[in-house]
Amino acid sequence: MRGFGYDSCDLTGQLMNYAQLTPGERFSPTRAFGYYSQRLVTQPSLRRAIVRTLAGFLRLSGRDTLVIKHHQKQQLNALNENGFVHLGQVLSAGQCEEIRVHMQDKTLTVRANRHRHFTLASIPHDVSMADYQLEDIVNCPHILSLANSPTLLALAANYIGCLPTLSALSLRWSMPSDRASNNLQGFHRDADDWRYLKVLVYLTDVGLGEGPHIYVLKTHKMQGSVKLRAYSDEFVGRQFGSERALIVTGQAGTGFAVDTSGIHKGVVPNETPRLLLQIQYSLLPAYFYEYAPLPYHGPLKLNRHVNRLIVRN
């Protein structure tokens, strides 16, 4: 497999406070147990059994799955089999433009240094990734509407096993490689919850030079490890073959759903910046975050349970 540049494709750019998961000030034993309990169980069949049990309990408490339409069954089957599925154009070119225009003067923050703030017009040369504030994201046109669309909620519910929780939402610019820092990840796996699904949407056109996402098909079925680790390009090529590493390109508005417990990464752009929307649905909250739901006064009729961690209305 040929080498790829990369940047982080996780959701740590949500700009929320991390929970204190080790003993010390503000330590939360409940959050620590919630996070590390699912990290410690790496055997796939045991994880699936626990997910079925948790999802069954949550369905009994009112979090039933949503009816999935006939055309979505193929998407669900592909997602279960490969850990990845194309969703097509989930936003129009016009909607992507509205999002970019709305956010162009909003504050951006460096993921590695939350004290560095600037706007799109004045991004420092040494910055490789920058995230918008969650408050601006939830008030941006089309984003909450997409995250709460019946199509995506039904896909997430049927993949997870019950009505999902919207547990993370981010909007990130990735800059061309001449701005790249050393704080980057290679191929890796996420460990956010017992069961979760991320919907990624390109809000700019993404070709090979604009930092496409790469997903190694079927690796969501592999046994993980307790300690998170990075995988080299050479390891992925040797272990899985280049045909398993799917490079995802597409026009602005292209969406795809991924189970990022599988091996993946995001390539560093080397031509023009990339704007990526990330929506995470999960069985439970992501316990490494301390959630602070934001007021929402928009026109959408949002499901309170689905959105309880992100907004309150």
Structure description:
By secondary structure, the protein is an alpha+beta fold. It is built from 9 helices and 17 strands. It has helices spanning 29-40, 44-60, 72-82, 93-103, 134-138, 143-147, 150-160, 233-240, 304-307; strands at 17-18, 84-89, 108-110, 113-118, 129-132, 165-174, 187-188, 196-202, 213-216, 230-231, 245-248, 254-258, 264-266, 274-282, 289-290, 294-295, 311-312. The strands form 5 sheets. The chain has an 8-stranded antiparallel β-sheet with strand order 2-12-8-14-6-5-3-4. Strand 3 (108-110) and strand 4 form a beta hairpin. The longest helix is centred in the first third of the chain and has 17 residues, at 44-60. The termini are far apart. Mean pLDDT is 88; it is low at 1-14 and 179-184.
Write the topology of this structure.
Layout: E1 17-18, H1 29-40, H2 44-60, H3 72-82, E2 84-89, H4 93-103, E3 108-110, E4 113-118, E5 129-132, H5 134-138, H6 143-147, H7 150-160, E6 165-174, E7 187-188, E8 196-202, E9 213-216, E10 230-231, H8 233-240, E11 245-248, E12 254-258, E13 264-266, E14 274-282, E15 289-290, E16 294-295, H9 304-307, E17 311-312
Parallel strand pairs: 16-17
Antiparallel strand pairs: 1-15, 2-12, 3-4, 3-5, 5-6, 6-14, 7-10, 8-12, 8-14, 9-11, 9-13
Helix pairs in contact: 3-7
